[in-house]
Amino acid sequence: MKRILVVGAGGQIGSELVDHLRNIYGGSNVVAADLDEKKLANYKIDGPIEILDALDGNLFHQIVKNYKIDTIYNLVALLSATGEKNPTLAWKINMGALENSLEIARQENCAVFTPSSIGAFGPNTPADNTPQDTVMQPTTIYGVCKVAAELLSNYYFYRFGVDTRSVRFPGIISYVTPPGGGTTDYAVEIFYEAIKHKRYTCYLKRGTFLDMMYMPDALDACVQLMEADPTKLVHRNAFNVTAMSFDPEMLADEIRKHIPEFTMDYNIDPVKQKIADSWPNSLDDSCARAEWGWNPKYNIAAMTMDMLEKIQEKYDNGLIS
């Protein structure tokens, strides 16, 4: 049975991945760690928690040894739009957490999962059907960190034999956690505004296509890759994965199938628009499909229906107002 440490457990992915992993491997075998103690409160019932600043290598290492961890999910990150406000801090957090994860994994013989992103690509990358292996020259500090993370993870695999694996996530859509400062956040915000106000002002212009994925598929991708036969992995850090590609108008049209009176206008955020314009319109994820059987379950229609139902339940139950 695996012994897993999820670092950054309170973030967008971690807040759902911990429960997902505990359902598979058992609550006592998955340790949830985060710097913010409040974000760990919901995890206390089902398994162990640890307050951890991932930049504290000594404490990080001690936790791994105490729990006899064999797999580290390093989810610590300062996201794209937030990172542009403080590039120095973004580099420190994103790379510092990764360096500690990899070095501790080397010493304790752990596997490491660290998500990459479509942010690793840049304006010189082919925008349509972006290949697995292509030009990667990002123009954001977030993207620079992701490219560096892929390279460093590969180095630790080839140099030290650390079992490093990663996927390049597109925008991830979820009803559980609020947006966290990413360029694709509009695809989450729009659902809350559609239900509450029947209107939304989008900060990206119409025609801005971006790859997206519903959280259940993202969670499956994490586990499927880490469970994959290593002898079949040609690419490790990192695999293109995607489930759907759409622009704001397509998502608005899908919402109108359920809320006909919904309207959307635009107030473009130049920083986020510039970032989005530098990212691919659509990814080629054929390598992930061939090497470890990647096959998403949700398209835009299924995702939209589920998001609206789940968020409406949150309003109805008084969990949000």
Comma- or semicolon-separated keywords:
321 residues; alpha/beta; Rossmann fold; UDP-galactose 4-epimerase, domain 1; 2 domains; six-stranded parallel sheet; three-stranded parallel sheet; 11 helices; globular
Structure description:
With 321 residues, the protein is of the alpha/beta class. The chain folds into 2 domains: 4-171 and 213-240, NAD(P)-binding Rossmann-like Domain (Rossmann fold, 3-Layer(aba) Sandwich); 174-212 and 244-280 and 298-316, UDP-galactose 4-epimerase, domain 1. Helices cover 42% and strands 15% of the residues. The protein has 11 helices and 14 strands. It has helices at residues 14-25, 57-66, 80-85, 87-108, 141-160, 186-196, 215-227, 248-256, 270-277, 286-292, 300-316; strands at 4-7, 30-34, 49-51, 71-74, 111-113, 116-117, 164-165, 167-169, 171-173, 199-202, 210-214, 239-240, 244-246, 263-266. It has a 6-stranded parallel beta sheet with strand order 3-2-1-4-5-7, with helices on both faces. Strand 1 (4-7), helix 1 (14-25) and strand 2 form a beta-alpha-beta unit. Helix 2 (57-66) packs parallel to helix 4, helix 4 (87-108) packs parallel to helix 5 and helix 6 runs parallel beside helix 8. The longest helix is centred in the N-terminal third of the chain and has 22 residues, at 87-108. It starts with a strand and ends in a 5-residue tail after the last helix.
